[in-house]
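Hey, quick one: can you model this chain's 3D structure?
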Amino acid sequence: MRLDRTGQAEAFDAIGDRYDEAFPHKEGQVASAEWLLTSLPAGARVLDLGCGTGLPTARRLAEGGCAVVGVDLSAGMIALSRAHVPTGVFHRADIADLRPGGPLDLGRFEAVAAFFSLLMLPRAEIPLALRTVHHLLVPDGLFTLSMVEADVDDFSIPFIGSTIRVSGYLRDELRAVVEGAGFEILEESSYTYAPATADVQPEVQIFLRCRRHT
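Sure thing. Here's the predicted structure for all 214 residues.
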């Protein structure tokens, strides 16, 4: 499969810390990070897949005693993560780099968090990305993710002064795709979110808390 990331990383390089200004309240991410912290043993390895600025997820997990590893395609976001979470280990990489036999072997993790990172992929790649997450997890490892509920595929939208391409699913289809990749969905929640910027429309955010079951 040919990967097309044209302009995606560059958009987030340009956005920088304005991302946290545009999304100041991240209740879903905070709640899911707390779920991980109460479910994992001390010192657990956790991968923040699409770590962005490192806020709030990577920082909270690190504060809670987890060994945090972050991955993001944007060099600018990786720089911010390293500044915000000095105890974390961060890599500029594509999720495709983490596939079995791929160029970046990070080992295995007790948990993976992927908040609004899978939506940056075309739909054809999302099941492959989920199988990569499955590969990265230890047996019975935990996986928490979020997506915006939308029936779109690789659709261009204005985003904080830049343009990005996003994909999404309606709720039942998202659940089917996640379960089809070998995950048991333990909990689901949703939030209606209005970003603090005029060029990002209000959205419904779906959060799933899952366990690798095969």
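One thing worth noting: The first strand starts at residue 45 and ends at 49.
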